[in-house]
């Protein structure tokens, strides 16, 4: 199981026009084919304790700024995976994310099978709107990279 950082290969204009941050990580796993929904559910369904702790800390810190702590929205009751609303879904790709006053983000999970292996790529797109968004992105980027890699490992662990 190898996780690689790769060059994002998605249509930014389609999924988040004006995105000023993009990264992508890929894992290849052995076993039965995995589709994008299954991969996203394995990634986001059961966070390790340390990710839950980081998210709890993040939510406490951003609450005074009026930032969202979940993508759940009674005015737009889209289905969720974890705390992320589903924006678009096909078997090979699921797009999650939401918009907030400081930044908008999308997580694209792509899955493809090749015989007895599957490749899953998680691409993150972010568009910042203001100084708060730029500072927030700068602060969380190192944690984001650790979290994405850990989430991808969960796909392999569940296989």
Strands ordered across the widest β-sheet: 1-2-7-6-5-4-3
CATH architecture: 2-Layer Sandwich
Distance between the termini: 12 Å
| Poorly predicted sequence stretches spanning 5 or more consecutive residues | none
The portion of residues assigned to helices is 25-40%
What is the 3D form?
globular
Mind summarizing the main beta sheet? 7 strands, antiparallel
How many domains make up the 3D coordinates? Answer: 1
Radius of gyration: 15 Å
Q: What's the overall average pLDDT, rounded?
A: 88
The number of helices is 4
What is this structure, in a nutshell?
By secondary structure, the chain is α+β, with helices and mostly antiparallel strands. It contains 4 helices and 7 strands; from the N terminus they run E-H-E-H-H-E-E-E-E-E-H. The longest helix is centred in the C-terminal third of the chain and has 28 residues.
Q: Mind explaining what this structure looks like?
A:
This protein is α+β, with helices and mostly antiparallel strands and 159 residues long. It has a single domain, classed as Alpha-D-Glucose-1,6-Bisphosphate, Chain A, domain 4. It is built from four helices and seven strands. Strands 1-2-7-6-5-4-3 form a seven-stranded antiparallel sheet. A hairpin with a 2-residue loop joins strand 4 and strand 5 (93-99). Helix 2 crosses helix 4. The protein is globular and about 50 Å long. It comes from Bradyrhizobium oligotrophicum S58. This is DUF2867 domain-containing protein. InterPro entries: DUF2867 (IPR021295). Pfam families: DUF2867 (PF11066).
